From TrEMBL, chains A, B:
It comes from the Eukaryota. Residues 4-343 form the Isopropylmalate dehydrogenase-like domain. One of its GO terms (molecular function) is magnesium ion binding. This is Isopropylmalate dehydrogenase-like domain-containing protein. GO terms for cellular component: mitochondrion. PANTHER family: DECARBOXYLATING DEHYDROGENASES-ISOCITRATE, ISOPROPYLMALATE, TARTRATE, HOMOISOCITRATE DEHYDROGENASE, MITOCHONDRIAL. InterPro entries: IsoCit/isopropylmalate_DH_CS (IPR019818), IsoPropMal-DH-like_dom (IPR024084). Keywords: Magnesium. It comes from Laccaria amethystina LaAM-08-1. The keyword Magnesium applies. GO terms for biological process: isocitrate metabolic process; lysine biosynthetic process; tricarboxylic acid cycle. The keyword tRNA-binding does not apply.
Length: 347, 347
């Protein structure tokens, strides 16, 4: 038996950190099925070369020949380019990876970190403004552009179920629903009510009775995240709020370079560091590989390979705690490879 | 000559802080035209009493009999209530108060504050998802809700002009355009391009040549705000991003209870503290009046009463710096009235 992992480094530092994650996975030996890596292309560079940001071949191979995947990061053009649109947004939709799960945990001591952050942002991953239904018209006073924000009961329910499952599995069992229903009473109202009603669904059957539900408007949530992050356990949010919240949470624990995620659906999972392609440090070999290694761990855990996932997490946490081999984003002077090697030594 | 100021305390602590702002204005004596206050109603309590959240009378009097206004804060129902919608959002639109200007400045030393924050969030105040065009339908898989996000060239241009004016008047002359055009290429693309092109308009006529323009995706902007807030000077953003960003910035300087704003149009200005109605401390007499007093100062400054505005700001800054009379949000033990009295003593 083998584990077929699609690798899509895409752009910028994605090409530096995904190979590090691959090396870390390879070091797990018999704790996981024999990994088999399949290199796939997508991104801005792919677009400039081929005119397509997400080749159909990439999607087909992911669907047919992969058990899971790791995605790096994409660059965006600095101006609108006709025909280009983000391949990561498209992939999430194509593979119906409806949940973006982003744990943010402080390991301490890390420079600039707030201690005792231990939360998970559960971000809906397929709709909200990310449906990208936009039109431009010309009105009396010039151009007018409109985008549609879609919130469905179906998507809100399945992300709600995922969030309740996660909350229920954690010691504090707290779920905070993020919305802005004081303004968006219909769309965010539907999100809020649907998530709230998950425990009353027949299939829930009492299993979420221990979960405490609370709510927070998205603006206050960002404020509280910064002031008292320890109040949050699991946060569930529509797509765009989740995007912003997870960056906000990342800022609390020292660096975006530490924050992993998975894009999860019912039949596929794709790990992805939360950071972007970081054009400012691209090619310098100093990108932090930890977010990608942790994303690999999350992916393995989601697939049931707990032992392999635990080993990766333990090794990474130890490197952070020792604080000797850190990349510049954590005020260290080490390279991507040095951090990888430190992780591999512990593995 | 008199200065006619509409007072709309609305709900919760709005009813405690707006009277404090009124007292501070009254103490300015001949530095401003003789103030004449007109009490007006709006809000959730008004709605529960009358079935209308924003009485037409309030709008009419503001339009016809007021030079400016101070708004407190509104409570929202915890569930959707038919017929209720936020009176502050409606007022901004009714009076075409298209710019929401929110300066966030650290005075130090304040508990939990990041030093050297000195920025202004310039938030578009009339469109984006705040047009509240929402519909709910029933599809194959249950309920589906859609909201329209509107971005126009006209609104983007006028908020852009306001932002360039402000940036140009400040020592650093930096303007950061906030958007998410990697996903919303048409709507946020229009916002970005329109703001960028303000310096090339005939009426600009070289006057913004000294302003340095940069851009930041909204998710990264929140991240950077937490990590290195000193990089920002003036930030201009569509409505919802501006809402979130200003709360994020507020978290940097110790308390939302410090952050003022004005809602400004071409012919009217309304001061408004950025904090909400704070149901948890309502009625206890411990709400921080500083955001409201500062909002009064911003309003007076906008109207050209610089001397009065300066006096209010100087007094407030001194009270904060002394650190002896502070409300609980700043880890003090003083009441709203004690802070007001401290301000009045300096005035
Ligand atoms: C690159 C961009 C489209 C993406 C998003 O907004 O989802 C990124 O910010 C993320 O958080 O994964
Ligand atoms: C009360 C609410 C409608 C309002 C907004 O979202 O604009 C508030 O959060 C603000 O920032 O003034």
């Amino acid at each position: 038996q083998s584990l077929r992992i699609g690798l899509i480094p895409a752009d910028g530092i994605g090409k530096e950190v995904i190979p590090a994650a691959k090396a870390a996975i390879l070091a797990l030996g018999s704790d996981i099925p024999k990994p088999q890596f399949i290199d796939l292309s997508a991104g801005w560079e792919t677009f400039t070369r081929t005119g397509v940001a997400l080749p159909q071949e990439t999607v087909d191979i992911l669907r047919q020949d992969c058990d899971c995947a790791l995605f790096g990061s994409v660059s965006s053009p600095s101006r609108k380019v006709v025909g280009y649109s983000s391949p990561i947004v498209a992939l999430r939709k194509e593979l119906d990876l409806y949940a973006n799960i982003r744990p943010v945990v402080s390991v301490a001591p890390v420079v600039g970190e707030k201690p005792s952050v231990d939360l998970i942002v559960v971000r809906e991953n397929t709709e909200c403004l990310y449906v990208k239904q936009e039109v431009q018209t010309v009105g009396e006073h010039g151009k007018e552009a409109r985008a549609t924000r879609l919130i469905t009961q179906r998507a809100s329910q399945r992300i709600g179920q995922m969030a309740f499952e996660l909350a229920n599995s954690r010691p504090r069992k707290l779920l905070t629903i993020i919305h802005k229903s004081n303004v968006l009473s219909i769309t965010d109202g539907l999100f809020r009510e649907t998530v709230r009603s998950v425990p009353t669904l027949p299939e829930a059957n009492g299993k979420y009775d221990q979960v405490t539900i609370s709510e927070q408007l998205v603006d206050s949530a960002v404020y509280r995240l910064f002031r008292e992050p320890e109040v949050f356990d699991v946060m569930v949010a529509p797509n765009l709020y989740g995007d912003i919240l997870s960056d906000a949470a990342a800022a609390l624990v020292g660096s975006l370079g530490l924050i992993p995620s998975i894009n999860a659906g019912d039949s596929f999972v794709m790990g992805e560091p939360v950071h972007g392609s970081a054009p400012d440090i691209e090619g310098k070999g100093i990108a932090n590989p930890i977010a990608s290694i942790r994303s690999a761990a999350l992916m393995l855990r989601h697939l049931g390979y707990t032992k392999g996932a635990d080993r990766l997490d333990t090794a990474v946490d130890q490197v952070i705690r020792e604080g000797k081999v850190l990349t510049p984003d954590l005020k260290g002077t080490s390279t991507t490879n040095e951090v990888l090697e430190a992780v591999l030594r512990i593995l």
